[in-house]
Structures are given as C-alpha cells and as structure tokens.
Amino acid sequence: MLSNIRIVLVQTYHPGNIGASARAMKTMGLTDLVLVNPRQFPDPEASRLAAGAEDLVDDARVVGSLAEAVSDCVQVVGASARLRSLPLPHFDEPDEMARDLVAQAGHDPVALVFGRERFGLTNDEIRCCSHQVSIPANPDYGILNLSQAVQVLAHELFTAWRRHPDSGYRPSRPVQERQPTREQLGHFHDHLRRVMRHSGFITQPHARTEDQLEALFARARPNRKELSLLRGLLASLESHLPDA
User: Fold this and answer.
1) Of 60, 72, 4, which Cα lies nearest the Cα of 36?
2) Structural domain count of the chain
3) Could you list the residue range(s) of the whole structural domain that residue 127 is in?
4) How many other C-beta atoms lie within 10 A of the C-beta of residue 123?
5) Do both 18 and 111 map to the same domain?
6) Percent of the residues in the chain that have a pLDDT greater than 70, as a whole number
C-alpha cells in the first residue's frame, strides 16, 4: 500500500531539500521518489541531508515533466499553499486527503506532488493533478519549507495507513520492554516465595499472602527488563540469608 504512494518534487532548486525530503519520506515508510527537472542532481548535499535515507536519493527517478511523473497514477494530489482558480476538488484537511489517497493506493499507484520552494506549482502543473491539498497553518506566518511540508503530509499518510485494517502495522518494541512469558513469571514467583520463606517473612505456607502478591504483580505488569531487575534484587537478598 505505501509502496504505491509516490512523492513527486517539481523543479527543486536546492539539492539539500531533495535529501531532507527523502529523509522525511523514509521515516514514514515511503520509498518512491520522483524528481521533475531538478536544478542540480545528483549532488553531495542531497546525500548529506538524507541522513540515512541515501538509498531513496540513489533510487530517485528523474523525469522531464510532471505529466510523465504521474502518467500511471489514478489519483494525483497537488500540495499548494495558495488556492488557484482551477476547479479541482480540494481537501480542506490533510488527514482527509491521506485517508482517500491510502484507500486508492491499495490497488493502484497514486502521487503527492510538491512544487518549487519559492512559488510552488504552476496552474499548468496543477492541471496534471486530480485534487489539491493545503496544510493549515498560522495565517500570519504559514510558511513551511519543502521538506517540512513533505514531512507533515507524509506523516498524515503513514497515520492513515497505520489505522487501515489491512496495514498489519505493529510498533517495534525492544525485547526487554515486552511482557514476560508465563514461564518467566512463574520462575519469578517461585523465587519470591523461596526468599520470603528463607527470610522468615512467611514462617508457614500462607496461600493468601502469596496470592495477594501475585495479584499485585499482575496489576503492575512488569516488563522483561523490570522482572529481571526484581530477580536480581531477590538473588542479592537471598545471598545474604543465613540458610540461603
């Protein structure tokens, strides 16, 4: 789905903006970058500002016109800070645009088009689009640079995709932050019971106390790192017990 979403940059003047836009794309899972007549590309500044997204810069396709860049797309959204006089459908909110574009991208290529740094897209270029979108901003100072605009709208696309029932999105979590298995919890409670008995905290089997402590840790839901810390604490206490 995300692989069907194309970012098109039209006549980008500063090569660093190409790299920064590629970085913005990659953080949001987008990989298809097309450049229409960039002033200077390839360029070391583009690779430098990509900062880990050099693969997108290296794989970017350069074409001679916007029409060529979007010829196979079923929906083309032009990002424009100024509303033109053309009667194109306009998304009032970027999240609305994102949901619609992601839905179309489930089956066919779509594109999100960004114009030049200084004056955006021309009317002729907007005619190549099927829709327009603007980013709501401070009416007294609504100026975003190119990569910022890419980042904002790419984030909207990623959010819409993430919330889609078919996305299969699962946030990555470090192993130590994951919940422990039932076996790991069982070993912890066995260790806890052993230390309580050896320390004299419990002098005879007392199921109610043990059940209450199990309930306490069930509510606390310690992750694997925290459980390991507790096991280390118990082991240290146990090593100082006379009969350990």
Assistant:
1) 60
2) 2
3) 5-163
4) 9
5) yes
6) 94
Q: pLDDT tens for residues 1-48?
A: 899 999 999 999 999 999 999 999 999 999 999 999 999 999 999 999
Do 62 and 25 fall into the same domain?
Answer: yes
CATH number at residue 136: 3.40.1280.10
**Predicted local confidence at residue 155, as pLDDT:** 98
Is 7 within 8 Å of 30 (Cβ atoms)?
yes
What is the full DSSP assignment across the chain?
A: -GGGEEEEEES-S-HHHHHHHHHHHHHTT--EEEEES-SS-S-HHHHHHHTT-HHHHHH-EEES-HHHHTTT-SEEEEE-SS--SS---EESSHHHHHHHHHHHHTTS-EEEEE-BTTTB--HHHHTT-SEEE-----TT-----HHHHHHHHHHHHHHHHHTSTT--------GGGSPPPHHHHHHHHHHHHHHHHHHTS-SS--HHHHHHHHHHHHHH---HHHHHHHHHHHHHHHHTSTT-
In CATH, what number is assigned to the domain containing residue 200? 1.10.8.590
Q: CB count, 10 Å around CB of 190?
A: 10
**Same domain, residue pair 91 and 194:** no
In a domain, 177, yes or no: no
User: In this structure, is residue 109 part of a structural domain?
Assistant: yes
Say whether both 17 and 96 belong to one domain. yes
* Last residue within a domain, chosen from 163, 193, 216: 163
Q: Looking at the predicted structure, is the pLDDT value of residue 121 above 70? A: yes
What phi and psi values does residue 142 have, to the nearest 5 degrees?
A: -100, 40
